[in-house]
Amino acid sequence: MLGTRPEERGPAWAAFAFLTALITSHTILETARDALFLSRLPATQLPFVYLAIAVISLGIARSEGRLLRGVSHQASLVGWTALAGIGTIVCWLEIPASGDGMLPASRALGLYGLYVGSGVVVALTSVHLWSVLAETVSITRAKRIFPLVGAGSSIGALAGSAAATALARVLPAQRLLLVAAVGFFVSAGAAAVLAVIVSDSRREAPAPPKLDLARDAGWALRHPYAKNLALFCLSSATALTFVDFVFKSTVAATVASSDLAFFFGAVTLCLSVLSLIAQLFVVPRLLRRLAVGAALAILPVGLLSGGLGLLVGLGLGAALAIKGADGTLRYSLHRTATELLYLPIPDGLRARLRTTLDVVGQRGGQAFASLLIITIVTVGAPFELVPLLLVLSCGVWIASALALRRPYVDLLGASLRPGATLRASAFPDLDLASLETLVAALDSPDDAEVVAAIDTLEREGKERLVPLLLLRHTSDAVVERALLSFIRSRRKSATSAIDRILDHQSPIVRSAAVAARSHLSHDAKLLYQRLALEEAPEVRATIVVQLVASGDIVGQEATDRLDAFERHGQVATRVALAEAIGRRESHALDDVIVRLAGAAEGDVRLAAVLAMSEHRSSAYLPSLVRAVGSEQTRAAAQSALVGYGLEGFEVVRRALSNLELPMEVRWALPHAMAAFDPEPAASVLVNALGREPEGIVRYRILRELEGIVARDPRIVLSRSALEPIVHGTLERAFRRIDERLILEAGANADGRRRTPGHELLCDLLRDKGAGLRDRLLRLLGLLHPHVDFASVRRGLASTSAKTRASSVELVASVVDLRLRRPIVALLDDIPDEERLLAAAGFHVRYQESYDELLRRMLEVEGESTKEIVRFVLAETPIPEKRSA
Question: Are residues 733 and 843 both part of a single domain?
Fold first, then answer.
């Protein structure tokens, strides 16, 4: 209850004081009202006043926006509370003196007015109070403030019932109305104080928005969350109306009219005590531990049990049990949790929707139940039908409460997203128009567009549409790409056209032409002739490769010629050598391409990797794994590994477990694995995540898993593998907080410790903690893929307290119960000492001194952290530390 922060206490305690005074007054009024009504009118008149309350509330809701346009919720709260006091005095004057027995309808107008007016005014003040608070606080603050404010209901009911019980012994019920009127005027004063405090916290209090019931009700029925919320309000109001009628009818038939005031006061007093206990000790824990929907299902479960008791004939005992559940939980757990349902709704819509659902849902449910009761009474049906209807409505209430969880989470997530995101979909098969567009692109003046068109035609199996005329293109890159297409498609009809460009001025084109000519129609004589005439070393290398691959040059001569190019050739020559081997598959040349893949020059390595992708060899796989560690060759190596299918998959899987590989390779391997079939790749990465000792590689694996799930939401990751990783991340996050607090406490105790090295170490631990929180959110995103945790991360980084609070609430709504408290503590805006209080089960606070912590960090931390610790020890002028 007292867990509010200093900046929250003003509005919290002012609202608490107002609600306490209001409910105290209303409880006294309700005790007198029920005693007067049931002693002077038959209980069968109750459904008519229920119906009147619903109809009049509807009329007021429709007209309040027009009559009080521009009036804020604060001003409306003061006005309606003062009006409650005035109306109570008027009714006191109109009700005949006690002792007159049952009254005819013509003399009972004051009683009807008292019953209807008290129900309408208190409902209106409640709506305005919670609207004021909802506009002032965020969801996270609401979870701290609302239980305290809600306790005002319980304490007010306790004080009011105690006063009513005591006064009923010495005063007639009618005199209690004057006491209640005075209480309403006091409440109006408290409302004025609240208005001032809330106005001071905002520059301008917004006026209630214009209400259009038809429009807003239509929107509510279309929006999934609002529709579920409307059903929840309707079913709960229906059930609670049945509860009130069943209880009061049973009491009127059982208790003498002279004892009604004392009976109602005593019952209310007992229930108020239970409600206060629940509000103080139960509600805060339930709201922290249970999802909102589960918390809201508790009250209807209790009412349903009591309704079943009435059906089996338990009479007044069952009625008291029903009233016990109602009185204990309605104004504590139920009211507080219900208010949380409105907080994810945007500010501009919240007040309108609240009023609409109060009218359409609460009053609609009240009217619906009243009409059913009137029908039962009118046709003379058995009284047991009412408890049966209570049981049925409670069943709908429970179902609607539980169904709110998913829409509640979705709405919280939507409130964090700046806009909708689109997912890429697969391109459809090429139709005739698409083919015409691609063929037309082959005539484009943009070389990149021509190459892209060839790539697409080849990918779609339409490479035969690549024209031979492209060999006359002015771009070397286009000609080279067309020749490669002819090789891949084994287009022997291109031989004559290729012969015409063997003397092309560009060595690049001549090399590609020689390779294509030899591949499509090998002619050793022609190749020897070209070798004798060719001066460019890169073209000569290509010719030699073709002769070696065809077996025309063998043995030591082949080795010597290739070694000459490999060892003494320029970069361009070795690139040409690798490209030539790639265009002409020959496993006799595998060793050459493997050596080229290890060259110092990036262009040579890239050419070798690209050659490995043209034809497969098991000898290439270790080189391809190493190549993913280089930025220049990474994409080509990854593509080549994927082209090896299952063999490539197994090589990458084994490499992920190889801790001897260079770090740059290990860091890149998760991305390579993610390029394979998503389901087995995800399984391998999840298992690797749990075993990986290096944080940077773990983070990389995590990012790749996010990408896999984003691309294919059907992928389901193993919870049993991910949950231990979540637990370990939580433990490390709390450990970093604890270590930093020890360092800060040590520096506070001895100012000589506050050195640049000390500050650097504290900053390092703070950064590590932030990184661990980020990893925790990403892990939770994998466990709950239906929630947009990217929006949660953005929301937590927002400068808006409400946005950060909505992010925390969204996380709290989806994580498992046992993880909720520690995760919320890590994410919420609370002091680090409070965070560690929630670490039970994940971290036990260290009992180390400043010196002991530094010595332990020298033993267990990574090398970079150890270097900073050594720096701290070196600059700290304390002998004890120097000896460490």
Answer: yes
